[in-house]
Design goal:
By secondary structure, the chain is an alpha/beta fold. The protein has a domain of about 210 residues: FAD/NAD(P)-binding domain (3-Layer(bba) Sandwich), CATH 3.50.50. The protein is built from 17 helices and 19 strands. α15 packs parallel to α17. The longest helix has 21 residues. The protein is globular and about 70 Å long. It binds ligand NA7. The site of ligand NA7 has 21 residues, from α5.
């Protein structure tokens, strides 16, 4: 493909490097975008990332116990290169963070991606110039660069949520957020540790810390459902099976919403209570996400079925935790699956250890931190290390942190003050030639993210080709299209039980964040829509001639 290259673009300021496209982010999304735009389309591309190497989320989230929560690791890899699929050996079904990072590093080496990525560089500003139809970015070192297209692959789980408890800054011990974990090993040996947060990160890190800490206090705001991960080594023959059937699997992942499995077609009403319990038991034994995908149809929409599964999981927690009072505190009450489902490697068993205590923050809220610990309404908890597993300002947070200035210099924070308006989860009215990967309103975390990024980047290519074919300078979605998109995304979510939970999917984990469902739940429909929009010549967009 030969899109008119920008290397020859005339700029009045010779000091500013000019590219066809600037990509922010070198995680799964940004790396693929770089490969595709540079190597498949022949564009000049510069990528920036605040981290010191590739990996994005997987570079930052290196806390002990961090693992993939996909049904099996091969589905958490890219799908675009059969050679890559053939040569990579995933060690386990739910591979460790270090193995995922090794995979991403291998991809960067294989496709020689690092040479066009500037690491340790945060993009602090991005502005659209209506006259030149270019974006100019500025970095934390004051450097600037400009490009026709800005691709924001800046992570659905990037902006760490750090609670602002009274006195927390006075705490004299170490504080580590799971999403900003240090690169040097953190020793818990002989230490008194507190963990705040019991989402995926908390549930993964707690059993690991408990193994060596002198004492661990888990500070829990909301008890969670967690399903046994049943992680196991992946045999070479199993990997070969994936490799052999890869193109079929990829098509199936695309069609079925991220994972290549049919969801259960069993209607709960066709089965007796005992038969349903047997099925739940079978799914529990299979582990992973099977309970949600394979038990019965309607897990996310049928209130009675959902409550029955919720109660089944509660009964498993009761059966695992020896102390009934602790078990009571661990009982989740929101509808099963409506917060991110957690895969567990011994979390509930951890509460049977003598060195672990659970504090229910709903009963005994945190009053303050002191130099030496944390005080809840039931007393002092002396600690040496505080681990914040308190999650992220998810999906919209990283775009708001970047806060690009669009037409008329309008900052995104202003546009998104009430709702995260956009079209197709990728484009924003007033922000021409800007594309988001895994933005709000796209399947993002509800789909397999590497494949999602590949499919979204293919759509970006169709946009760029459309512009180039007609010698157009910019494309921009409309506010009307944004309203329609919001109605579609919200409408789908409202037909499910998801809005019932105070989850990060709903933006409900961050004080003051607008309550809005942040993802498109039907990945197959979403990617069909991208294709239709491109084939129809982008009906929901306006264009300007190239200047
Ligand atoms: P999550 O899933 O957002 O979990 C964060 C946890 O921290 C959750 O239990 C929160 O309770 C708790 N939290 C958040 N803020 C506070 C305050 N202020 N006080 C007490 N407790 C708090 O983040 P994770 O990092 O675990 O997982 C994010 C994704 O990463 C995950 O879904 C995977 O896709 C990978 P809450 O439930 O909000 O009451």
């Amino acid at each position: 493909m030969v899109i008119t290259s920008e290397t020859a673009h005339a700029t009045s300021d010779k000091a500013i490097a000019t590219y066809d496209a600037i990509i922010i982010g070198a995680g799964f999304g940004g790396l693929y975008a770089l490969h595709h735009l540079r190597d498949q389309m022949g564009l000049s591309v510069r990528s920036f990332d605040g981290a010191s190497d590739v990996g994005g989320t997987w570079w930052y989230n290196r806390y002990p116990g961090a693992r993939v929560d996909a049904p099996s690791s091969p589905f958490y890899g890219y799908t675009f290169s059969q050679e890559l699929v053939d040569e990579w050996v995933w060690p386990e079904t739910q591979s460790k963070q270090s193995d995922v990072l090794a995979y991403i590093e291998h991809v960067a080496d294989k496709f020689d991606l690092r040479k066009d990525i500037q690491f340790d560089t945060f993009v602090t500003d991005a502005r659209y110039d209506e006259d030149t139809q270019h974006w100019t970015i500025e970095t934390d070192s004051g450097e600037r660069a400009t490009a026709r297209f800005l691709v924001c692959a800046i992570g659905a789980l990037f902006v760490a949520n750090k609670p602002d408890y009274p006195g927390i800054d006075d705490f004299a011990g170490d504080i580590h957020h799971t999403g900003r974990w240090p690169h040097e090993p953190v020793s818990f040996e002989g230490k008194r540790v507190a963990v705040i947060g019991t989402g995926s990160s908390g549930v993964q890190v707690v059993p690991e810390i408990a193994k060596t800490a002198d004492h661990l206090t888990v500070l829990q705001r909301t008890p969670q459902y967690a399903l046994p991960a049943r992680n196991k080594p992946l045999a070479e023959e199993e990997l070969d099976q994936y490799r052999k059937d890869w193109s079929e699997l990829r098509a199936s992942m695309r069609k079925r919403g991220g994972w290549p499995f049919r969801t259960s077609k069993l209607a709960p009403a066709d089965h007796t209570f005992d038969e349903r319990q047997e099925r739940y038991e079978e799914m529990w034994e299979r582990g992973g996400m099977h309970m949600a995908i394979n038990s019965f149809t309607g897990v996310y929409t049928d209130e009675d079925l959902n409550e029955e599964i919720s109660e089944f999981v509660r009964s498993k927690i009761r059966a695992t935790v020896n102390d009934p009072e602790t078990a009571d505190k661990l009982m989740p009450s929101y509808p099963f699956g409506t917060k991110r489902l957690i895969l567990d490697n011994g979390y509930f068993e951890t509460f049977n250890r003598d060195n672990v205590a659970l504090v229910d923050l709903r009963e005994n809220p945190i009053e303050e931190f002191t130099k030496t610990g944390v005080r809840t309404t039931d007393g002092e908890h002396p600690i040496d290390i505080l681990v914040l597993a308190t999650g992220f300002d998810a999906v919209s947070g990283s775009m708001l942190k970047l806060n690009p200035k669009g037409r008329g210099g309008v900052p995104l924070k202003e546009k998104w003050a009430e709702r995260f308006d956009n079209n197709l989860g990728m484009t924003i009215a007033g922000y021409p030639n800007l594309f988001m990967i895994h933005g709000p309103g796209s399947p993002g975390v509800f789909f397999t993210m590497p494949l999602g990024a590949e499919l979204q980047t293919a759509w970006i290519e169709s946009c760029l080709r459309h512009l180039d074919d007609a010698n157009l300078g910019s494309m921009e979605t409309t506010e009307e299209a944004e309203a329609n998109w919001d109605a579609e995304v919200t409408g789908i979510a409202n037909r499910t039980l998801y809005p019932r939970a105070d989850s990060w999917y709903m933006g409900a984990n961050i004080p003051g964040k607008p309550r809005q469902f942040l993802g498109h739940l039907i990945g197959s429909r979403y990617f069909d829509r991208l294709t239709e929009v491109a084939e129809a010549g982008f009906p929901d967009f306006t264009f300007e001639d190239r200047r």
